[in-house]
Amino acid sequence: SYSAQFSEAAQFMQQHDSFLVVSHIHPDGDAASSTCAVGLMLDQLGKRYTLLNDGAVPQKFDEVCGSDRIVNAQLLSELPAAQAIIAVDCADFERIGEVAARFPAGLPLLNIDHHPTNDLYGTANLVIADASATAEILYDLITFMSLSWNKQLADCIYTGLLTDTGGFRYANTSSKVMKMAATLLDYGTSASELAEILLESTTSAHVELLKRALNTLTFSPKQDIAWVIVEKEDMSETKANHEDLEGIVNYPRNIEGVQVGMLFKEMKDGTVKCSFRSAGKANVAALAQQFGGGGHVRAAGATLDGPLSEAIASVVREVERALYG
Ligand code: 5GP
Ligand code: MN
Ligand code: MN
After folding, report:
1. CA 120, CA 304: separation in Å to the nearest integer?
2. CA dihedral of 163, 169, 175, 178, whole degrees rounded to 10
């Protein structure tokens, strides 16, 4: 039951003295803010810890959740010693990235996540697929552990809720989420400031990529599958980072009559990252899993072998099969 999972997670945090806290590669708002929130929880418990990520964390998260405290593991010749690992917002162990191979063997791992495709890879697991965000689970864990709230912790949790619900618009926007958000405003979070930084403000690289991506917009014969493509050169010529792609996949998905929208990104190594978004009919988590990825029913992702044209053809074939049987 959930209460057994909460007490197991609480015990895990209480029983060890030092931790590595990690999230997934290319961290989003929920990943970055959940990493920072766990750090603030461990502060209250008087524990030692290092916040880590497989790469750099987008700068916009620094000012909203203090994610400049998250260390880029690629810049570390050696990981700090620790007794235990806490992974947040990672559906499977591989999502942690290459840094996971450097974890000392045999360390206990607490897996806190909300993806329905989570394979319970932890030695302890707090996995609640109904939760809108990992931050929602942490809110409940903070309450369960009787930890105290402050503006910094409230900003972290609010960031995860806001970003994983697409600004309180997606199907995971429950009344519980809205009540939590309201309480976080009482703890000092500014809804307008966080929305401005996390949802409204954008980079010129993003707009340039969006122009190029929209030029590639393609429909299936029945017009209910649509996708855009971003090639290696689009990334290098616009000097874009992975984070500059955020939101672009929503353009094909949002078109009237489209059931599945996709973004195909050609990676530097020639593999192809596919982002899937569903308008409701198709379960894209199941689709992404067919290609070794995962995610949520309405938002998922997977990485395929190139070349681009073959990756697109095989994905579109499977999406058609999922829609028409
Ligand atoms: P995005 O398309 O924005 O990268 O990811 C959408 C959702 O799918 C997120 O919840 C993300 O965690 C999940 N996701 C994206 N790529 C992968 C992947 O390669 N493996 C798994 N398990 N989940 C993914
Ligand atoms: Mn995430
Ligand atoms: Mn999440």
Report:
1. 24
2. 50
The tally of CA atoms less than 13 A away on the side-chain side of residue 72 is: 9
Q: Determine which helix (DSSP H) or strand (DSSP E) holds 285, and give its type and residue range.
A: helix 284-290
pTM of the model: 0.94
Q: State which H helix or E strand residue 212 sits in.
A: helix 204-215
Closest CA to ligand 1's atom 13: 295
Count of beta carbons in the 10 Å neighbourhood of residue 19: 26
What distance in Å separates the CA atoms of residue 95 and residue 26, rounded to the nearest whole number?
A: 10
Give the count of beta carbons closer than 10 Å to the beta carbon of residue 62.
16
The alpha carbon of 298 and the centre of ligand 3 are apart by a number of angstroms equal to: 13
Tokens representing 325 are: 């049987």
The CATH class given to the 2-200 domain equals alpha beta
Do you know the residue count of the chain? 325
Could you give the CA distance from residue 301 to residue 278 in angstroms, rounded to a whole number?
Answer: 11
Per 3-state DSSP, the chain is made up of helix, strand and coil in percentages (nearest 5) of 45, 20, 35
Give 78's contacts (C-beta < 8 A, 6+ positions apart).
Answer: none
Report CA(169)–ligand 2 centroid distance (Å): 17
Report whether 69 contacts 40 (CB < 8 A). Answer: no
CB half-sphere exposure, 322, CA atoms < 13 A: 24
Per residue in 246-256, pLDDT (tens digit) is: 999 999 999 99
Smallest CA-to-CA distance from 124 within 141, 145, 110 is with 110
pLDDT in tens, 283-307: 999 999 999 999 999 999 999 999 9
Ligand 1 close to Cβ of residue 304 (< 6 A): no
DSSP E strand stretches across the chain: 18-22, 48-53, 71-72, 84-88, 109-113, 124-127, 218-219, 225-230, 260-266, 272-278, 294-295, 299-304
Written out in words, the top-level CATH class of the domain with range 205-324 is alpha beta
CA of 26 to the centre of ligand 2 (A): 8
Domain-by-domain residue ranges, the chain? 2-200, 205-324
> Could you report the predicted ipTM of this complex, rounded to two decimals?
0.96
